[in-house]
Please model this.
Amino acid sequence: MSTTKKVAVVTGGNRGLGFEASRQLAKQGYQVILTSRDEEKGKSAALKLKNEGLDVIFQPLDVTSDESSQKLAEFINNEFGKLDVLVNNAGIYIDSPTGDNSIFDAKIDTLKQTLETNVYGVLRVTQALIPLMKKQNYGRIVNVSSRMGQLHDMGGGSPGYRISKTALNALTRIFASELQGTDILVNSMYPGWVQTDMGGKNAPRTPEQGVDTIVWLATLDDGGATGGFFRDRQPIEW
Model:
């Protein structure tokens, strides 16, 4: 099932920002591979977008598993022979609203679990999929971060989530640096406070507003920004 279309992978695509990013990229003419750990929810999300007339297919992906990440890479290689866009959106927020929300009470297990998905998961999936970009010397990698990961304005509370997003931003910088001289661009972005399961219904931004910068970074022209942190298409402080 090779395609002349550009191929995009979105992790954590069954809901929220990942679902909307899948929709918007497909609307721009991309063949989208929507991934999620929960097969039933992932299939149902992909079907919904397919029913909107969009080229979206589902593949299972557990970002905490090397085997799952490699299987996805093999599937993409066999089906399409290339990958153009990777949106690392899958993430968790499990800091307790009470108890271990303070750094003084933070549980190492909470940090480990958060880092496993939000940092090591991104590293694992990116390592597995980047060869498909290197093959054609083209790729756009978008890491969905948060203002809670900004060192210059770091506050207290939510230590697991904060540390994971700061580390994710470090990954962005390292990958971008090691890919200098290629046409594979790697950036972090902060979507703002968005109406998702994580953001809640009182958030001021719609998912469509939240993913605008994701789609912009995923479709950057050659020679575009790399190693940057963006909100609303503008660079922000690390």
User: Anything to note?
Assistant: The mean pLDDT is 95. The chain has one domain: 7-235.
